[in-house]
Amino acid sequence: MSSETKPPEAAAPTGGTRPDSASGTDTDTASVPGDLAMTRVLWPFMLASAVGLVPFTIYSTFLVPMAEVSGGGVAALGQMRGLGGLAALAVGTALAPLIDRVRREWAAAGGLAVLAVSAALGASGEFLLLAAFCLLVGAGTAVLNPALTAAAADRFGNEAAAGRAATLITATQSLTALLAAPLVALPALVWGWQGDLWAIAAICAALALYFLLRGRRKAGTEAAATTERPGYLESFRLLGALPGVVPLILVAMLRTAAFMGYLAYLAAFYDERFGLAPEPFAIVWTLSGTAFFLGNLLAGRLLSSERAAIPAERLMACGLIVALAALVGVFFAHTLWFALPLTALVGAGHATVAACVTTLLVRRCGSLRGTALSVNAAGMSFGVFLGAGLGGVGLALGGFPGTAAALGGLTLVALVLARLAARSPAPAGD
C-alpha cells in the first residue's frame, strides 16, 4: 500500500515501541499496566492537565469580585469567557499539525508558559487585561491539552495501553473540574483571588521549565528517528483520509454541544421545577461531576483490555443512547428523586462517549494522533457555543421541552455519526 493511503501506520506501527518510549517507560506489547503503574509514569502530564483547568475555574468562581475590581460588570466579564472558546477554536485548528511536528514536551511547555503569562495579567484586575487573560487561557489550553494527551499515549508501545493513558489524562481533567472550585476558594480566604492567580502563574512557569528541560533531554533520541513528517496542509488531508476519524471528531463536537448546553440550563431547570436555590443545587452539580469522572475512568479502564468485552464503537453507541434517554428524561421529570438519577446517567453516558472517542482517535491516527486530538479539542470548543446557543433557542421557543428537543436532536445526530464510525474499517491491530 502506498504512503498516500496509510502513512500514519507506516510511521507509527501498531505494537512495538515508539521513539518517545526510549527512556524505558514503554510497556510490553502484550500487556497493559495497571492504573497505579501508569500514574507513576504519567504524573507530570496529569499534574499539568489538572493545572491547565484552574485559571478558568478561578475566573468563574470569583466572577463577581473580579467585576467589582475591574468595573466591567458581571455580564460583561461573563461574556468575555467566550473569548477563550473562540481562541481555543482558532489556535487549536491552526496549530493542530504542529503538535505532531515538535516534541510533545515542548508544545506542553509553550502552553504552560502562555497560561503563566495569562494568570499574571489577570491578577492585575484591569478590564482589558482580563480580556487578554481569557484569550490567552483559551489559546494556551488549546495547545496544552492535546499535547499532554498525545504525549501520555506515546509513552506506551501498544494501542490498548496508549488509549488507556490518554483517558487517564481526560479523567484527571474531569476530576479537577469537580474539585477545583473548593480548592481555589480555600487559599483565596488568605490571599484573595489575585493570590490564586499569582500562585497558578508560578506553578505553570515551573511546569513549563520542567517540560522544556525534559524535552531537551530527549531531543537526541528524536533527532535519531528517520520518520518523515507530512507537511502542514498534508496533515489535514491525511487525517481526513483515515477511516472513521472525521465522524469521530463530529461525534465529540455534537456530544460536547449537547452536554454543555444541558449544563448551561440545568440550574435554571432545577430552580423552576423543584425550587432548588444555588446552595442545594451545588449537590446536584457535584452528583453530575462525580458521575462524569467515574464514567470516564471506568470506560477508559474497560477499553484498555486487549480483549475488551465490548468494542469501543459499540460502547460509544450505548453511551449516546443512555445520554439521549436520560437528558430528555431529566427535562420531563416532575419529581426530584426521578430527576437526580437521570442527571447522574447523563454525566456517565457523556463521559463514556468521551473516553471512547479519545481511545479510538489514539488507536486509529498513529503518528497523526496529536493533530487529531488538537482538531478534536477545537471542535469541542465550538460545541460549547453551539450547545448553549441551540439550548437557548429551544428554551425560548418551547420551554424546557424545547431545550430537550434541541439538545436531544444533537445527540441523535451524534449517534448516527457514531454508527458511521463503527462501520469504517479499523486499522490493523485495533
Topology:
Blueprint: H1 7-11, H2 35-61, H3 63-70, H4 74-94, H5 104-122, H6 127-154, H7 159-224, H8 232-241, H9 245-274, H10 278-303, H11 312-332, H12 336-365, H13 369-423
How would you describe this protein?
80% of the residues lie in helices and 0% in strands. By secondary structure, it is mostly helical. Helix 2 packs across helix 7 (159-224) and helix 10 runs parallel beside helix 12.
Helix/strand order? HHHHHHHHHHHHH
Overall pLDDT confidence: 82
Poorly predicted runs: 1-30
Rounded to the nearest angstrom, the radius of gyration is 21 Å
Number of strands: 0
Helix content: over 70%
| Secondary-structure-derived class | mainly alpha
Terminal residue distance: 18 Å
Principal-axes shape call: globular
- The percentage of residues in β strands lies in under 5%
Name its key features:
mainly alpha; disordered N terminus; 430 residues
At a glance:
The radius of gyration is 21 Å and the shape is globular. With 430 residues, the chain is mainly alpha-helical.
